[in-house]
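Lecture 7 notes: from sequence to structure.

We start with a single chain of 110 residues. Read the sequence below before looking at the structure.
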Amino acid sequence: CTVCLGRNPHRTIECAATQTWDKQFKTFSKLICKGLWTKDRKQICTGWQRDEGCTTPKHDACHVCSGCGAATHGAQKCPRAQKIESTDTVVLVSLARVGFGMFRAGPVSW
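Now the structure, written as tokens:
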């Protein structure tokens, strides 16, 4: 979630948390009309929050982390974000590996 930095299931587009997922920090951003904004009313680029960052060359939204405000990373790479647990990882195995029309979700033991 770009607001609370949590990976727990919730409607992230409506997250109104005032603290991060672990209650260690106040949230840096908030959602207003499905847009991501700093508490001092500057729009934050949602593309910047993804692992791959923003691909739009020029626009008015800020390239800062929605979780902590740093310009060096987005929410997906924020040190405050909840880490992925290996048991929570969902893996989709290719059709060639498991056969036509079948996928296996959940932890994979190789």
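The CA atoms of residues 71 and 90 lie 30 Å apart. Keep this in mind for problem set 3.
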